[in-house]
Design a protein that fits this description.
The chain is an all-alpha fold. Helix content is 78%, strand content 0%. The protein folds into 2 domains: 208 residues, no CATH class; 113 residues. The longest helix is centred in the middle third of the chain and has 42 residues.
Length: 409
């Protein structure tokens, strides 16, 4: 990887460091995704998860926890997962290029309108570092070597090569401030790029995790992290550009006056270090507010809620049926099967009404499904009424037979 992206140039190490890191981030994101998606272990894992997801969908369909329109949405979800976890062309155009190249394109449109010069930031950052912390000056010969024009001593060493001139305190502070500027600016920029590349390389795992409600949080967290890191790649260049514009005036004034100390250097650099940290926090807070209504997770919660509401309706119907029967026929205790049948019928009707109100069904298969459900409900109701009537008649006939004189004798 290092041979492909080159090495760091000592004469322009800040610019080359940013360039090499950006190149390696691109190789990590694209090559890592292709290596992970093409591995045998991931293919086996994805096949097993898809099998379980389809089996779960079929079971929920038989249990009546999925309405017809949600079936189409769930199948589309499975198709999207297969496409983005196995096809690099689809992932590259929909996810990778948007996350890696999108912030730069947005910056190209946003910065000029705001009067911010963000062009060729690595070279400008390198120039600022060279100006603030120039290379040490070459040492001069000491007075003891003036007698020898070549500056040679008896040991054969050259005084002009070995003698050093101590730096002033102002120059030491300038070097420290320049190092903080590179770490806070270039360092945070490179960290954001590498983090984004690693997240994009783990994309197949994230999309596979979205198949089930229990693991859907991993996909949502991954998506929030990708968006937040991509937005950080947009916010950090803004801070670096404004910081370089702020430093330009004091640095030029110090160079014109021939002074070593630069007015306000530490204050400007440390202030923009805090600005970069604040922007990173703001971008991740912004991405943290993202919510993704996954179909599988949403339908599972709705199914649980509908099951609980159906159980409540069944219990309420059982109590009301028992009370009404006790008022009509006090001596006779009706069996629990009658109240259960009535409760099931009413629960099915309530679920049918709720599904028809929440999701409009306009397709032909949906209409056929609703018609069949209505016929089934009416059939169950009619059968329950016949069974209840037969039981009531048998109970009355037994009571009359027990009251005859022949039976008493």
């Amino acid at each position: 990887m290092s041979e492909t992206c080159g090495t760091i140039n000592p004469d322009a190490w800040v610019q080359s460091l940013i360039g090499v890191t950006d190149c390696q981030a691109g190789l990590l994101g694209a090559g890592g995704w292709q290596g992970l998606s093409g591995s045998t272990l991931f293919n086996i894992l994805l096949t097993g998860l898809l099998t379980l997801a389809i089996a779960r969908l079929g079971y929920r369909l038989m249990a009546g926890q999925v309405v017809p329109d949600d079936i189409v949405v769930l199948l589309l979800h499975i198709g999207v997962v297969i496409a983005l976890a196995t096809s690099w062309q689809a992932y590259d155009r929909l996810i990778y290029r948007v996350a890696m190249d999108g912030p730069a394109e947005i910056a190209g449109e946003l910065f000029p309108g705001a009067g911010i010069d963000a062009g060729n930031l690595p070279a400008r950052l390198q120039n600022a570092y060279d100006t603030i912390a120039p290379p040490p000056e070459k040492a001069v010969a000491s007075p003891t070597a003036a007698a020898d024009p070549n500056g040679a001593q008896p040991g054969g060493t050259n005084v002009a090569e070995n003698a050093t001139v101590p730096e002033s305190l102002a120059m030491t502070e300038r070097r420290a401030a320049a190092g903080v500027m590179v770490v806070s600016g270039a360092g945070s920029w490179m960290a954001a790029r590498l983090a984004l590349a690693l997240l994009l390389a783990l994309g197949p795992f994230a999309f596979a995790a979205s198949l089930f409600p229990a693991s859907a949080g991993l996909f949502i967290g991954w998506l929030r992290a990708v968006i937040g890191t991509a937005m950080a790649g947009l916010a950090i260049p803004i801070a670096i550009s404004i910081e370089l514009q702020m430093l330009e005036g004091p640095v030029r004034a110090a160079l014109r006056a021939g002074e070593t100390e630069i007015a306000g250097l530490n204050a400007i650099i440390w202030s923009f270090t805090l600005v970069i940290l604040g922007l990173l926090y703001a971008m991740h807070r912004l991405a943290g507010g993202l919510t993704v209504p996954l179909p599988l997770a949403r339908t599972g919660q709705q199914g649980i809620a509908e099951t609980q509401s159906g159980a409540g309706v069944t219990a309420q119907a059982s109590i009301s049926s028992t009370h009404s029967q006790s008022h009509q026929h006090a001596p006779t205790v009706m069996p629990a099967a009658q109240s259960r049948t009535t409760g099931i019928v009413r629960a099915v009707e309530a679920r049918e009404r709720a599904s028809s109100l929440s999701v409009p069904t306009t397709t032909a298969p949906a209409l056929v499904f609703q018609a069949a459900s209505a016929v089934g409900v009416r059939t169950i109701r009619r059968g329950s009424q016949i069974v209840d009537g037969a039981r009531r008649t048998a109970s009355d006939r037994g009571r009359l037979l027990s009251q005859r004189p022949e039976a008493q004798s």
